[in-house]
UniProtKB/TrEMBL annotation:
Entries under InterPro entries matching the protein: MATE_fam (IPR002528), MdtK-like (IPR048279), Membrane_Transporter-Flippase (IPR052031)
Primary subcellular site in the record, as a coarse category: membrane
Membrane topology, from the record: Multi-pass membrane protein
Taxonomic placement: Bacteria, Pseudomonadati, Pseudomonadota, Alphaproteobacteria, Hyphomicrobiales
Source organism: Enhydrobacter aerosaccus
Pfam family, one: MatE
Cell compartments where the protein resides: Cell inner membrane
Lineage: superkingdom: Bacteria
CC annotations in GO: plasma membrane
A GO molecular function held by the record: xenobiotic transmembrane transporter activity
Entry-linked CDD domains: MATE_like_12
UniProt keyword terms in alphabetical order: Cell membrane, Membrane, Transmembrane, Transmembrane helix, Transport
Protein name as annotated: Putative efflux protein, MATE family
Transmembrane segments: 12-37, 49-72, 93-115, 135-153, 165-189, 195-218, 257-278, 284-304, 325-350, 362-384, 391-411, 423-443
Length: 474
Protein backbone atom coordinates (compact mmCIF):
# COMPACT_ATOMS: atom_id res chain seq x y z
CA UNK A 1 0.00 0.00 0.00
CA UNK A 2 1.02 3.57 -0.62
CA UNK A 3 1.86 5.57 2.48
CA UNK A 4 -0.61 8.38 3.11
CA UNK A 5 0.72 11.84 2.25
CA UNK A 6 2.40 13.76 5.05
CA UNK A 7 0.17 16.79 5.58
CA UNK A 8 3.01 18.68 7.28
CA UNK A 9 5.02 18.69 4.05
CA UNK A 10 2.37 20.38 1.90
CA UNK A 11 -0.56 22.76 2.10
CA UNK A 12 -0.90 26.02 4.08
CA UNK A 13 2.04 26.55 6.42
CA UNK A 14 -0.02 28.42 9.03
CA UNK A 15 -2.40 25.47 9.37
CA UNK A 16 0.48 23.01 9.73
CA UNK A 17 2.30 25.26 12.20
CA UNK A 18 -0.77 25.77 14.38
CA UNK A 19 -1.53 22.03 14.23
CA UNK A 20 1.82 21.44 15.93
CA UNK A 21 2.22 24.64 17.93
CA UNK A 22 -1.10 24.72 19.80
CA UNK A 23 -0.74 21.32 21.54
CA UNK A 24 3.01 21.79 22.09
CA UNK A 25 2.55 25.23 23.67
CA UNK A 26 -0.39 23.90 25.67
CA UNK A 27 1.73 20.99 26.94
CA UNK A 28 4.59 23.33 27.87
CA UNK A 29 2.23 25.75 29.63
CA UNK A 30 0.63 22.87 31.52
CA UNK A 31 4.09 21.66 32.54
CA UNK A 32 4.92 25.13 33.77
CA UNK A 33 1.79 24.80 35.88
CA UNK A 34 3.86 22.55 38.18
CA UNK A 35 6.02 25.58 38.89
CA UNK A 36 3.01 27.91 39.17
CA UNK A 37 1.24 25.55 41.57
CA UNK A 38 4.41 25.26 43.67
CA UNK A 39 4.68 29.06 43.75
CA UNK A 40 1.00 29.40 44.71
CA UNK A 41 1.18 27.04 47.71
CA UNK A 42 4.75 27.84 48.78
CA UNK A 43 3.87 31.54 48.73
CA UNK A 44 1.56 30.82 51.67
CA UNK A 45 4.64 29.90 53.71
CA UNK A 46 6.16 33.39 53.38
CA UNK A 47 9.02 35.21 51.65
CA UNK A 48 11.79 32.88 52.86
CA UNK A 49 10.02 29.86 51.36
CA UNK A 50 9.57 31.69 48.04
CA UNK A 51 13.27 32.58 48.11
CA UNK A 52 14.16 28.90 48.72
CA UNK A 53 12.39 27.87 45.52
CA UNK A 54 13.89 30.86 43.68
CA UNK A 55 17.41 29.79 44.67
CA UNK A 56 16.73 26.21 43.61
CA UNK A 57 15.18 27.02 40.24
CA UNK A 58 18.31 28.04 38.26
CA UNK A 59 20.20 24.97 39.51
CA UNK A 60 17.43 22.61 38.43
CA UNK A 61 16.99 24.55 35.20
CA UNK A 62 20.63 23.79 34.47
CA UNK A 63 19.98 20.08 34.94
CA UNK A 64 16.85 20.20 32.79
CA UNK A 65 18.86 22.03 30.14
CA UNK A 66 21.22 19.08 29.79
CA UNK A 67 18.35 16.61 29.41
CA UNK A 68 16.35 18.81 27.07
CA UNK A 69 19.43 19.52 24.95
CA UNK A 70 20.24 15.83 24.52
CA UNK A 71 16.60 15.03 23.73
CA UNK A 72 16.65 17.73 21.04
CA UNK A 73 19.18 15.61 19.14
CA UNK A 74 16.73 12.71 19.12
CA UNK A 75 13.87 15.03 18.13
CA UNK A 76 15.84 16.51 15.25
CA UNK A 77 16.90 13.13 13.88
CA UNK A 78 13.40 11.73 14.35
CA UNK A 79 11.79 14.63 12.47
CA UNK A 80 14.19 14.30 9.55
CA UNK A 81 13.76 10.50 9.37
CA UNK A 82 9.99 11.02 9.40
CA UNK A 83 10.38 13.48 6.52
CA UNK A 84 12.55 10.91 4.72
CA UNK A 85 9.92 8.19 5.53
CA UNK A 86 12.34 5.84 7.32
CA UNK A 87 10.10 4.27 10.01
CA UNK A 88 12.69 1.77 11.19
CA UNK A 89 15.18 4.49 12.08
CA UNK A 90 12.47 6.56 13.79
CA UNK A 91 11.92 3.75 16.32
CA UNK A 92 15.65 3.07 16.67
CA UNK A 93 16.40 6.75 17.32
CA UNK A 94 13.66 6.83 19.98
CA UNK A 95 15.09 3.86 21.88
CA UNK A 96 18.68 5.05 21.72
CA UNK A 97 17.76 8.57 22.79
CA UNK A 98 15.86 7.24 25.81
CA UNK A 99 18.85 5.09 26.75
CA UNK A 100 21.32 7.96 26.43
CA UNK A 101 19.21 10.57 28.22
CA UNK A 102 18.11 8.41 31.17
CA UNK A 103 21.70 7.26 31.74
CA UNK A 104 22.84 10.89 31.84
CA UNK A 105 20.01 11.72 34.27
CA UNK A 106 21.03 9.02 36.74
CA UNK A 107 24.65 10.21 36.79
CA UNK A 108 23.69 13.89 37.15
CA UNK A 109 21.10 13.09 39.83
CA UNK A 110 23.60 11.24 42.02
CA UNK A 111 26.23 13.97 41.67
CA UNK A 112 23.70 16.74 42.30
CA UNK A 113 22.28 15.08 45.42
CA UNK A 114 25.78 14.81 46.89
CA UNK A 115 26.95 18.36 46.16
CA UNK A 116 23.73 20.26 47.04
CA UNK A 117 24.89 21.40 50.53
CA UNK A 118 28.19 22.71 49.15
CA UNK A 119 26.41 24.44 46.29
CA UNK A 120 24.03 26.25 48.64
CA UNK A 121 26.93 27.39 50.80
CA UNK A 122 28.69 28.62 47.67
CA UNK A 123 25.56 30.60 46.81
CA UNK A 124 25.70 32.18 50.29
CA UNK A 125 22.06 31.31 50.98
CA UNK A 126 20.57 32.93 54.09
CA UNK A 127 19.97 30.63 57.11
CA UNK A 128 16.18 31.01 56.92
CA UNK A 129 16.26 29.89 53.28
CA UNK A 130 18.85 27.08 53.48
CA UNK A 131 16.77 24.21 54.90
CA UNK A 132 13.91 24.64 52.41
CA UNK A 133 16.27 24.96 49.45
CA UNK A 134 18.24 21.86 50.53
CA UNK A 135 15.16 19.64 50.70
CA UNK A 136 13.66 21.02 47.49
CA UNK A 137 16.84 20.58 45.45
CA UNK A 138 17.69 17.09 46.70
CA UNK A 139 14.24 15.71 45.92
CA UNK A 140 14.37 17.39 42.51
CA UNK A 141 17.70 15.68 41.76
CA UNK A 142 16.14 12.31 42.61
CA UNK A 143 13.43 12.93 40.02
CA UNK A 144 15.75 13.87 37.14
CA UNK A 145 15.46 10.50 35.37
CA UNK A 146 11.67 10.85 35.16
CA UNK A 147 11.93 14.42 33.88
CA UNK A 148 14.46 13.45 31.22
CA UNK A 149 12.42 10.44 30.06
CA UNK A 150 9.35 12.61 29.55
CA UNK A 151 11.43 15.16 27.61
CA UNK A 152 12.28 12.40 25.13
CA UNK A 153 8.67 11.21 24.92
CA UNK A 154 7.51 14.75 24.14
CA UNK A 155 10.26 15.18 21.55
CA UNK A 156 9.28 11.99 19.75
CA UNK A 157 5.55 12.76 19.65
CA UNK A 158 6.05 16.25 18.23
CA UNK A 159 8.63 14.99 15.71
CA UNK A 160 6.15 12.48 14.27
CA UNK A 161 3.48 15.18 14.08
CA UNK A 162 1.39 13.93 17.03
CA UNK A 163 2.05 16.55 19.73
CA UNK A 164 -1.41 16.31 21.32
CA UNK A 165 -0.63 12.96 23.01
CA UNK A 166 1.39 14.45 25.93
CA UNK A 167 -1.29 17.09 26.55
CA UNK A 168 -3.66 14.59 28.13
CA UNK A 169 -0.91 13.04 30.25
CA UNK A 170 0.30 16.40 31.54
CA UNK A 171 -3.24 17.67 32.13
CA UNK A 172 -4.02 14.68 34.35
CA UNK A 173 -0.79 15.04 36.34
CA UNK A 174 -1.31 18.81 36.78
CA UNK A 175 -4.69 18.19 38.43
CA UNK A 176 -3.06 15.53 40.58
CA UNK A 177 -0.25 17.94 41.46
CA UNK A 178 -2.68 20.63 42.56
CA UNK A 179 -4.56 18.16 44.75
CA UNK A 180 -1.50 16.61 46.42
CA UNK A 181 0.64 19.74 46.82
CA UNK A 182 -1.09 21.26 49.89
CA UNK A 183 -1.10 17.85 51.58
CA UNK A 184 2.63 17.39 51.08
CA UNK A 185 3.49 20.99 52.01
CA UNK A 186 1.18 21.60 54.99
CA UNK A 187 0.14 18.07 56.00
CA UNK A 188 -3.32 16.92 57.02
CA UNK A 189 -4.30 14.51 59.77
CA UNK A 190 -1.82 11.60 59.78
CA UNK A 191 -0.01 13.00 56.70
CA UNK A 192 2.99 15.07 57.86
CA UNK A 193 3.78 18.41 56.20
CA UNK A 194 7.19 18.75 54.53
CA UNK A 195 7.19 22.50 53.87
CA UNK A 196 9.04 23.59 50.74
CA UNK A 197 10.34 20.06 50.17
CA UNK A 198 6.73 18.88 49.91
CA UNK A 199 6.32 20.77 46.64
CA UNK A 200 9.29 18.89 45.16
CA UNK A 201 7.94 15.55 46.43
CA UNK A 202 4.61 16.20 44.69
CA UNK A 203 6.34 17.01 41.41
CA UNK A 204 8.46 13.85 41.74
CA UNK A 205 5.36 11.68 42.11
CA UNK A 206 3.46 13.21 39.20
CA UNK A 207 6.47 13.33 36.85
CA UNK A 208 7.20 9.67 37.59
CA UNK A 209 3.65 8.74 36.58
CA UNK A 210 3.85 10.84 33.39
CA UNK A 211 7.17 9.33 32.25
CA UNK A 212 6.04 5.75 32.97
CA UNK A 213 2.92 6.27 30.85
CA UNK A 214 4.96 7.86 28.06
CA UNK A 215 7.53 5.05 27.84
CA UNK A 216 4.72 2.47 27.99
CA UNK A 217 3.00 4.07 24.99
CA UNK A 218 6.25 4.03 22.99
CA UNK A 219 6.75 0.34 23.73
CA UNK A 220 3.15 -0.49 22.79
CA UNK A 221 3.44 1.41 19.51
CA UNK A 222 2.48 5.02 18.87
CA UNK A 223 1.63 6.27 15.37
CA UNK A 224 4.41 4.38 13.61
CA UNK A 225 6.89 4.50 16.51
CA UNK A 226 7.26 1.10 18.15
CA UNK A 227 10.24 0.93 20.48
CA UNK A 228 11.18 -2.70 21.05
CA UNK A 229 13.70 -4.31 23.37
CA UNK A 230 16.44 -4.44 20.73
CA UNK A 231 16.17 -0.64 20.27
CA UNK A 232 17.57 -0.27 23.82
CA UNK A 233 20.72 -2.28 23.04
CA UNK A 234 23.47 0.35 22.97
CA UNK A 235 24.30 1.43 19.43
CA UNK A 236 27.40 3.45 20.13
CA UNK A 237 27.66 4.76 16.58
CA UNK A 238 24.21 6.31 16.86
CA UNK A 239 24.73 7.41 20.48
CA UNK A 240 27.94 9.19 19.46
CA UNK A 241 26.13 10.88 16.57
CA UNK A 242 23.20 11.93 18.74
CA UNK A 243 25.47 13.02 21.60
CA UNK A 244 27.57 15.34 19.46
CA UNK A 245 24.45 16.66 17.76
CA UNK A 246 22.77 17.26 21.12
CA UNK A 247 25.86 18.55 22.94
CA UNK A 248 25.69 22.08 21.46
CA UNK A 249 21.97 22.21 22.32
CA UNK A 250 22.76 21.14 25.89
CA UNK A 251 25.56 23.69 26.10
CA UNK A 252 23.17 26.26 24.64
CA UNK A 253 20.55 25.65 27.33
CA UNK A 254 23.19 25.15 30.02
CA UNK A 255 24.76 28.52 29.19
CA UNK A 256 21.31 30.05 29.65
CA UNK A 257 20.83 28.18 32.92
CA UNK A 258 24.26 29.15 34.32
CA UNK A 259 23.57 32.76 33.38
CA UNK A 260 20.25 32.52 35.23
CA UNK A 261 22.15 31.16 38.24
CA UNK A 262 24.61 34.06 38.09
CA UNK A 263 21.71 36.50 37.85
CA UNK A 264 20.25 34.90 40.97
CA UNK A 265 23.61 35.32 42.75
CA UNK A 266 23.60 38.97 41.72
CA UNK A 267 20.02 39.59 42.86
CA UNK A 268 20.61 37.81 46.18
CA UNK A 269 23.27 40.40 47.01
CA UNK A 270 20.45 42.95 47.30
CA UNK A 271 18.63 41.00 50.03
CA UNK A 272 15.66 38.65 50.45
CA UNK A 273 13.11 41.18 49.11
CA UNK A 274 14.86 41.51 45.76
CA UNK A 275 15.36 37.74 45.52
CA UNK A 276 11.71 36.99 46.31
CA UNK A 277 10.46 39.63 43.83
CA UNK A 278 12.82 38.40 41.13
CA UNK A 279 11.72 34.83 41.83
CA UNK A 280 7.99 35.55 41.55
CA UNK A 281 8.43 37.84 38.55
CA UNK A 282 10.76 35.32 36.92
CA UNK A 283 8.21 32.53 37.39
CA UNK A 284 5.57 34.63 35.64
CA UNK A 285 8.03 35.52 32.87
CA UNK A 286 8.79 31.83 32.40
CA UNK A 287 5.13 30.78 32.37
CA UNK A 288 3.73 33.54 30.15
CA UNK A 289 6.62 34.26 27.76
CA UNK A 290 9.53 31.80 27.86
CA UNK A 291 7.53 28.55 28.04
CA UNK A 292 5.12 29.47 25.19
CA UNK A 293 8.08 30.82 23.20
CA UNK A 294 9.99 27.59 23.61
CA UNK A 295 6.83 25.67 22.66
CA UNK A 296 6.58 27.66 19.44
CA UNK A 297 10.29 27.06 18.79
CA UNK A 298 9.77 23.32 19.23
CA UNK A 299 6.81 23.35 16.82
CA UNK A 300 8.82 25.29 14.23
CA UNK A 301 11.73 22.86 14.66
CA UNK A 302 9.49 19.80 14.21
CA UNK A 303 7.72 21.19 11.13
CA UNK A 304 10.87 22.62 9.54
CA UNK A 305 12.79 19.42 10.37
CA UNK A 306 10.35 17.24 8.45
CA UNK A 307 10.54 19.58 5.46
CA UNK A 308 14.34 19.70 5.57
CA UNK A 309 14.38 15.89 5.75
CA UNK A 310 12.21 15.87 2.61
CA UNK A 311 14.64 18.30 0.92
CA UNK A 312 12.28 21.31 1.01
CA UNK A 313 14.55 24.05 2.34
CA UNK A 314 12.49 26.94 0.93
CA UNK A 315 9.38 25.83 2.82
CA UNK A 316 11.44 25.48 6.01
CA UNK A 317 12.55 29.10 5.62
CA UNK A 318 8.93 30.23 5.15
CA UNK A 319 7.99 28.32 8.32
CA UNK A 320 10.63 30.25 10.26
CA UNK A 321 9.43 33.63 9.03
CA UNK A 322 5.77 32.93 9.73
CA UNK A 323 6.63 31.46 13.14
CA UNK A 324 8.58 34.61 14.05
CA UNK A 325 5.63 36.89 13.26
CA UNK A 326 3.24 34.60 15.10
CA UNK A 327 5.49 34.53 18.18
CA UNK A 328 6.01 38.29 18.16
CA UNK A 329 2.33 39.24 18.07
CA UNK A 330 1.18 36.51 20.49
CA UNK A 331 3.74 37.25 23.21
CA UNK A 332 3.39 41.01 22.76
CA UNK A 333 -0.32 40.55 23.50
CA UNK A 334 0.47 38.51 26.62
CA UNK A 335 2.98 41.15 27.69
CA UNK A 336 0.43 43.97 27.44
CA UNK A 337 -2.01 42.04 29.66
CA UNK A 338 0.70 41.37 32.27
CA UNK A 339 1.85 45.02 32.15
CA UNK A 340 -1.67 46.22 32.93
CA UNK A 341 -2.37 43.62 35.65
CA UNK A 342 1.12 43.30 37.19
CA UNK A 343 0.18 43.93 40.83
CA UNK A 344 -2.86 41.60 40.99
CA UNK A 345 -0.88 38.85 39.25
CA UNK A 346 1.98 39.02 41.78
CA UNK A 347 -0.52 39.27 44.67
CA UNK A 348 -2.09 36.00 43.52
CA UNK A 349 1.16 34.23 44.39
CA UNK A 350 2.28 36.23 47.43
CA UNK A 351 -0.94 37.63 48.92
CA UNK A 352 0.39 38.63 52.33
CA UNK A 353 3.59 40.53 51.49
CA UNK A 354 2.97 44.06 50.18
CA UNK A 355 6.68 44.74 49.64
CA UNK A 356 7.16 41.68 47.41
CA UNK A 357 3.96 42.54 45.49
CA UNK A 358 5.20 46.06 44.78
CA UNK A 359 8.72 45.00 43.78
CA UNK A 360 7.55 42.02 41.72
CA UNK A 361 5.07 44.21 39.81
CA UNK A 362 7.85 46.70 39.10
CA UNK A 363 9.98 43.88 37.63
CA UNK A 364 7.11 42.78 35.36
CA UNK A 365 6.32 46.29 34.09
CA UNK A 366 9.92 46.80 33.05
CA UNK A 367 10.03 43.49 31.15
CA UNK A 368 6.57 42.70 29.83
CA UNK A 369 6.45 44.88 26.71
CA UNK A 370 9.59 43.24 25.26
CA UNK A 371 8.24 39.68 25.38
CA UNK A 372 7.28 39.60 21.69
CA UNK A 373 10.97 39.61 20.80
CA UNK A 374 11.40 36.36 22.76
CA UNK A 375 8.72 34.72 20.61
CA UNK A 376 10.23 35.85 17.31
CA UNK A 377 13.76 34.89 18.33
CA UNK A 378 12.77 31.42 19.57
CA UNK A 379 10.89 30.70 16.31
CA UNK A 380 13.97 31.45 14.19
CA UNK A 381 16.16 29.37 16.52
CA UNK A 382 13.74 26.49 15.89
CA UNK A 383 14.75 26.53 12.21
CA UNK A 384 18.45 26.45 13.12
CA UNK A 385 17.90 23.41 15.33
CA UNK A 386 15.74 21.71 12.70
CA UNK A 387 18.61 22.00 10.25
CA UNK A 388 21.05 20.57 12.80
CA UNK A 389 22.83 23.93 13.18
CA UNK A 390 23.05 23.62 16.95
CA UNK A 391 26.25 25.69 17.13
CA UNK A 392 24.42 28.75 15.81
CA UNK A 393 21.80 28.44 18.53
CA UNK A 394 24.50 27.94 21.17
CA UNK A 395 26.48 31.01 20.06
CA UNK A 396 23.34 33.15 20.09
CA UNK A 397 22.70 32.09 23.68
CA UNK A 398 26.28 32.90 24.66
CA UNK A 399 25.93 36.35 23.10
CA UNK A 400 22.54 36.92 24.73
CA UNK A 401 23.41 35.79 28.24
CA UNK A 402 27.14 36.36 28.63
CA UNK A 403 27.99 39.19 26.24
CA UNK A 404 24.85 41.23 26.79
CA UNK A 405 22.54 40.32 29.69
CA UNK A 406 24.83 39.50 32.62
CA UNK A 407 27.42 42.26 31.96
CA UNK A 408 24.56 44.76 31.59
CA UNK A 409 22.95 43.51 34.80
CA UNK A 410 26.20 43.80 36.73
CA UNK A 411 27.13 47.25 35.44
CA UNK A 412 23.65 48.74 35.79
CA UNK A 413 23.05 47.32 39.28
CA UNK A 414 26.50 47.78 40.80
CA UNK A 415 27.87 50.84 39.03
CA UNK A 416 24.81 53.07 38.69
CA UNK A 417 22.16 54.33 41.08
CA UNK A 418 19.62 51.79 39.74
CA UNK A 419 20.56 49.03 42.20
CA UNK A 420 18.50 45.85 41.74
CA UNK A 421 16.41 47.66 39.12
CA UNK A 422 19.48 47.51 36.88
CA UNK A 423 19.11 43.71 36.84
CA UNK A 424 15.49 44.10 35.75
CA UNK A 425 16.40 46.45 32.87
CA UNK A 426 19.13 44.17 31.56
CA UNK A 427 16.55 41.58 30.42
CA UNK A 428 14.56 43.63 27.87
CA UNK A 429 17.68 45.37 26.53
CA UNK A 430 19.48 42.06 25.95
CA UNK A 431 16.32 40.49 24.47
CA UNK A 432 15.88 43.15 21.78
CA UNK A 433 19.58 43.18 20.84
CA UNK A 434 19.71 39.36 20.64
CA UNK A 435 16.65 39.33 18.39
CA UNK A 436 18.40 41.71 15.99
CA UNK A 437 21.48 39.44 15.83
CA UNK A 438 19.26 36.36 15.31
CA UNK A 439 17.51 37.98 12.34
CA UNK A 440 20.87 38.78 10.73
CA UNK A 441 22.05 35.18 11.12
CA UNK A 442 18.77 33.81 9.74
CA UNK A 443 18.86 36.07 6.67
CA UNK A 444 22.50 35.22 5.91
CA UNK A 445 21.36 31.58 5.69
CA UNK A 446 24.40 29.46 6.60
CA UNK A 447 21.96 27.05 8.30
CA UNK A 448 20.61 26.06 4.85
CA UNK A 449 23.84 24.20 4.05
CA UNK A 450 23.70 21.88 7.08
CA UNK A 451 22.85 18.21 6.27
CA UNK A 452 22.13 15.39 8.74
CA UNK A 453 20.76 12.74 6.38
CA UNK A 454 23.00 11.61 3.55
CA UNK A 455 21.87 11.64 -0.06
CA UNK A 456 22.02 7.82 0.04
CA UNK A 457 19.49 7.80 2.89
CA UNK A 458 17.20 10.16 1.01
CA UNK A 459 17.53 8.15 -2.22
CA UNK A 460 16.88 4.83 -0.46
CA UNK A 461 13.67 6.12 1.08
CA UNK A 462 12.54 7.71 -2.19
CA UNK A 463 13.04 4.42 -4.05
CA UNK A 464 11.20 2.53 -1.29
CA UNK A 465 8.21 4.85 -1.62
CA UNK A 466 8.21 4.40 -5.42
CA UNK A 467 8.25 0.59 -5.04
CA UNK A 468 5.38 0.74 -2.57
CA UNK A 469 3.48 2.96 -4.97
CA UNK A 470 4.09 0.57 -7.91
CA UNK A 471 2.93 -2.43 -5.88
CA UNK A 472 -0.26 -0.80 -4.62
CA UNK A 473 -3.60 -1.96 -6.05
CA UNK A 474 -4.69 0.06 -9.09
Amino acid sequence: MTKPPNKLLEGPILRSLLTLAVPIVLTNVLQSAYQIIDAFWVGRLGGAAVAAVSVSFPVMFLMFAVGAGLSIAGSTLTAQYVGARNDKMVSHVAGQTLLMVISAAIVLGLIGYAVTPSLLRLMNVAPDVYAGALGFMRVSFIGLAFNFAFFVFQGITRSIGKPSVPVFIVLATVFLNFAINPLMIFGWGPIPGHGVMGAALTTLITQALASIVGVFLLQRGLHGVHVRAHDFIPDFRHIKRAFFLGLPASLDMSARAVALMMMTFLVSSFGTLGLAAYGVGGNILQAVAIIPGIGLSIAVAALAGQNIGAGNIKRAEQIGRLGAWLGFFALTGFGIVVFLLASPIVAFFVPNDAAVISEGAHFLRINALSWGFYGAQFALIGVFRAAGSMMISMMLTVVSQWVLQFPLAYVLSKHTTLGVEGVYWSLPIATVLTFAVTVIVFVRGSWRRKKLLTEDERLTNKVTDEILSDESPR
